[in-house]
Amino acid sequence: MSNGRSQLWRRRSSTTWIRAGLILFVVIFVWVQVNFLDFGTSQSPYSEINDSQAAILSMVPAVLHKFLSPQPKNFTVIGPNGTYSNIGYFKTILNISEIKRNIAQYNQQQLVYNEDTFGPLQNDSIVIVVQIHDRITYLRHLIVSLAQARDISQALIVFSHDYYDEEINSLVQSIDFCKIIQIFYPFSIQTHPREFPGEDPADCPRDIKKEKALQNKCNNALYPDLYGHYREAKFTQTKHHWWWKVNHVFNQLEATRNHTGLVLFLEEDHYVAQDFIHVLKLMEKTCREACRHCNILSLGTYLKTYNYYGDSKKKEALRALKEQSVKQLGQIQPSWTFQVLPSLYQHSQKVEITPWISSKHNMGMAFNRSTWNEIVKCAAYFCKYDDYNWDWSLQHISQNCLKQKLHAMVARGPRVFHIGECGVHHKKNNCASTSVISKVQQVLKSAKRHLYPDYLILTYTTVLKKSKLRKGNGGWGDHRDHKLCMSMTIR
Ligand SMILES: *[C@@H]1O[C@H](CO)[C@@H](O)[C@H](O)[C@H]1NC(C)=O
Ligand SMILES: *[C@@H]1O[C@H](CO)[C@@H](O)[C@H](O)[C@H]1NC(C)=O
Ligand SMILES: *[C@@H]1O[C@H](CO)[C@@H](O)[C@H](O)[C@H]1NC(C)=O
Ligand SMILES: *[C@@H]1O[C@H](CO)[C@@H](O)[C@H](O)[C@H]1NC(C)=O
Ligand SMILES: *[C@@H]1O[C@H](CO)[C@@H](O)[C@H](O)[C@H]1NC(C)=O
Ligand SMILES: *[C@@H]1O[C@H](CO)[C@@H](O)[C@H](O)[C@H]1NC(C)=O
Ligand SMILES: *[C@@H]1O[C@H](CO)[C@@H](O)[C@H](O)[C@H]1NC(C)=O
């Protein structure tokens, strides 16, 4: 949801020797890249990827196939001719008041599934919070990847939903490899279709001029965003949900409110490497020993940006790829390319110590309660900042409010991958595509013997400084959003 936005950072010239060291590092880095990698499109080991459903399935252990296929419930109807026929999977259609009732019940009961089997949460266990909307195909693959992770049986996965769907519920409840719990964001658009936080018919249209809006006396006439646009409900939900769920997990949910260990945040279109818990724990330990000021961990990064750095050959490849997809899809798809994927095994042990940058380090983020306690003190900076992205809002907190800015330890060889080619709201024409899943499977297969490192190699990135005070991306000018967000804050 945040890839593709531009960065406004540049290096600060602190001390000359750091700069010299950095230049040397960059030179070596580029040299290594140029000499050991061949990104020519024709030679890529992944250009011949077979991404058919059968091929994807063949990479998944048979015992996990159940998570990938809808489990048909036998629902029979009696035909007029008196015979029975099976109409297969039947989706229950609930009305809004039923959905609201169910959501309230889930949030109140807080049932932890599989606790009998796996025992209560330990303070050094990992809590994994997955934010889910409605993209069930990606979610299936995320679950398959989690199922294959070592030590997953000690984790608790909190599924935080903003869309109520029986099929998603039964998928999540079919998980049998660790403890799980479901929570439901109670102010969703689904349950508020014609009122705030959904779209009230009396709200101002996005593009209306302010004078016109004032004349019309539409609800939010006084509060366009800093680009002059009025609120679009669907773009506000992700940030509200993010804030609600983190508050909820740290302070309300009985199962997690006393937890002192790490909480890892994933989204429905992520995919984890089997050693992600191992690496996370190793990073946590390394932080304690070697980076006392690190307060946030990140298991993923958007490879495209750093891997194309300084290599004209790769730029060419990217350009060619772009042109191709422009022709094929009518739009540019800069995110995943086979050229950049294989880097996991070159960097499997490397972590980077760096100031936290929203657009680069928002994937597979983990922090503990002490970091959260600092963040939540700055609630107003999050809730009143005119930017609908939770990650940019978090960055705003880091830059402008935190005594100790967010400083990250980032896995250079990612342990979390982004498999969603379509955002929650940015639908493209090939949203059902699973070709990225296939590529990630291949990458992980070829990196297999480089996983589970015994120790980490640290690299340091010098202090980055923003070039000027950044305006937000807008979409968050409505005072009702500020108020709702503040009201969900628990301090
Ligand atoms: C892709 O893989 C599947 C299963 O392994 C196989 O049946 C199919 O023939 C392959 N297709 C191509 C084009 O190689
Ligand atoms: C559904 O019906 C089919 C055939 O009628 C049967 O083979 C299958 O076992 C049934 N599945 C369940 C879950 O009852
Ligand atoms: C009986 O009715 C069912 C459902 O309407 C239909 O699918 C089936 O083909 C019919 N069978 C016969 C023998 O007409
Ligand atoms: C929703 O469904 C329930 C039970 O089916 C029914 O009692 C209720 O009247 C319905 N509510 C609305 C708003 O349709
Ligand atoms: C976890 O609990 C154990 C025993 O209850 C305690 O010794 C340890 O300090 C705790 N660890 C953390 C990180 O709170
Ligand atoms: C969490 O802490 C509170 C207050 O200390 C206590 O009442 C509650 O039982 C604890 N919950 C769990 C699950 O340990
Ligand atoms: C939480 O993380 C901080 C670093 O942000 C660390 O200093 C602290 O020891 C951690 N707390 C626990 C209980 O692990």
Please, could you describe this protein's structure?
The protein is built from 16 helices and 15 strands. The longest helix has 21 residues, at 16-36. It has two domains: 1-37; 97-487, Spore Coat Polysaccharide Biosynthesis Protein SpsA, Chain A, CATH 3.90.550. Mean pLDDT is 81; it is low at 1-16, 26-47, 304-318 and 320-340. A hairpin with a 5-residue loop joins strand 2 (76-78) and strand 3. With 491 residues, it is an alpha/beta fold. The radius of gyration is 23 Å and the shape is globular. 38% of the residues are buried. One 2-acetamido-2-deoxy-beta-D-glucopyranose (NAG) binds next to loops. Residues 74, 86 line the site of one 2-acetamido-2-deoxy-beta-D-glucopyranose (NAG).
Distance between the termini: 28 Å
Estimate the mean pLDDT confidence.
Answer: 81
CATH topology-level name of the largest domain? Spore Coat Polysaccharide Biosynthesis Protein SpsA, Chain A
Shape: globular
Q: Hey, roughly how much beta strand do the residues contain?
A: 5-15%
Number of strands: 15
Bound molecules: 2-acetamido-2-deoxy-beta-D-glucopyranose
In CATH, what is the homologous superfamily of the largest domain? Spore Coat Polysaccharide Biosynthesis Protein SpsA, Chain A
Name of the CATH architecture of the largest domain: Alpha-Beta Complex
Radius of gyration, taken over Cα atoms and rounded to an integer in Å: 23 Å
Spans of 5+ residues with little confidence (pLDDT < 50)?
Answer: 1-16, 26-47, 304-318, 320-340
Helix content percent band: 25-40%
Widest sheet, order of strands:
6-5-4-7-11-9-12-10-14
Q: What is the makeup of the main sheet?
A: 9 strands, mixed
Classification by helices and strands: alpha/beta
Total helices: the number is 16
The number of domains is 2
* CATH top level label of the largest domain: Alpha Beta
